[in-house]
């Protein structure tokens, strides 16, 4: 019996392939199904094709072959105008945040509504009251209500990622694509951001594909993990099946038990530091 059913698909990739003009294959015949509400972690070594796969889904990178079916629409077949309309259904959260630094937090969140408003409104920054109310609700949800009028370049990395999450949600998407959301963050902030993403997806029944380099973090938070190596799927299953043999298949030989011990020691050190600070405060 298959673990994931095509009939329940929110997103289905069929034979997705990306070959560059140099002849290098970034993706080779990737076939995956993501049901509604599922949170899938995408792992693999650098150059495995993780970011390429995410960008092929919303056609920031043009696939060389295959299908990307969102509900009943094959995004690969769409012309520019229809693609623009369909992209509103896909929220994208970037590793580099991709905020407009000189704009306020509120203005960055409202930019998630650009696909819904006429050009003159976005140019003059005159969004409908309903969009502004939505932006405030989202800022409250990600814990940044008190930062609404602050410029984006005055925020910490964790705060910037929260703005990116709120902006993606402002699209009212049906699917989230998340590209290494914790790559530039410290371990504590990384877990906070992952927890926030998981909670929001659960609240909205929102499926998500999260490209993540941190394997223990993926195991802690993901419902399903897909491992890529050299553009091909070499693992697809629940986190508890991601054993040493599976990790070796994805990444190559490594002392995975030693790596896990290192992660546990780091978590213990953080907990000890927190206890010390609490003792000082008392």
From TrEMBL:
Recorded GO CC terms: membrane
Keywords, in A-Z order: ATP-binding, Cell membrane, Membrane, Nucleotide-binding, Translocase, Transport
Database matches in SMART domains: AAA (SM00382)
CDD domains: ABC_PhnC_transporter (cd03256)
Organism field: Saliniramus fredricksonii
Name this polypeptide is given: ABC-type phosphonate uptake system ATPase component PhnC
Transport as UniProt keyword: yes
GO MF term list: ABC-type phosphonate transporter activity; ATP binding; ATP hydrolysis activity
Pfam families linked to this entry: ABC_tran
NCBIfam families the record matches: ABC_phnC
Keyword match NADP: no
Domain ABC transporter: 11-255
Protein family according to the UniProt entry: Belongs to the ABC transporter superfamily.
């Amino acid at each position: 019996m298959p673990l994931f059913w095509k009939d329940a698909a929110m997103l289905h990739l069929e034979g997705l392939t990306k070959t560059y003009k140099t002849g290098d294959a970034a993706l080779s015949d990737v076939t995956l199904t993501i049901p509604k509400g599922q949170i899938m972690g995408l792992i693999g070594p650098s150059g495995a094709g993780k970011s390429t796969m995410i960008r092929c889904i919303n056609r920031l990178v043009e696939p060389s072959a295959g299908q990307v079916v969102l509900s009943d629409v094959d995004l690969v077949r769409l012309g520019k105008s229809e693609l623009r309309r369909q992209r509103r259904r896909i929220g994208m959260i970037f590793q580099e945040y991709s905020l407009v630094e000189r704009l306020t937090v509120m203005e960055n969140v409202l930019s998630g509504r650009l696909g819904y408003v006429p050009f003159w409104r976005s140019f003059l920054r005159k969004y409908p009251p309903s969009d502004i109310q939505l932006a405030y609700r989202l800022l409250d949800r990600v814990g940044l209500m008190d930062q609404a009028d602050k410029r984006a370049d005055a925020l910490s990395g964790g705060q910037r990622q929260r703005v990116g999450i709120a902006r993606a949600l402002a699209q009212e998407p049906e699917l989230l694509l998340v590209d290494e959301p914790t790559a530039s963050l410290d371990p504590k902030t990384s877990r906070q951001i992952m927890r926030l993403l998981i909670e929001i997806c659960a609240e909205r029944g929102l499926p998500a594909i999260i490209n993540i380099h941190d394997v223990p973090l993926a195991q802690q938070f993901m419902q399903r993990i897909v491992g890529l190596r050299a553009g091909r799927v070499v693992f697809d299953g629940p986190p508890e099946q991601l054993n040493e043999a599976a990790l070796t298949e994805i990444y190559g030989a490594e002392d995975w038990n030693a790596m896990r011990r290192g992660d546990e020691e780091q978590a213990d050190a953080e907990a000890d530091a927190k206890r010390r600070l609490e003792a000082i405060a008392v």
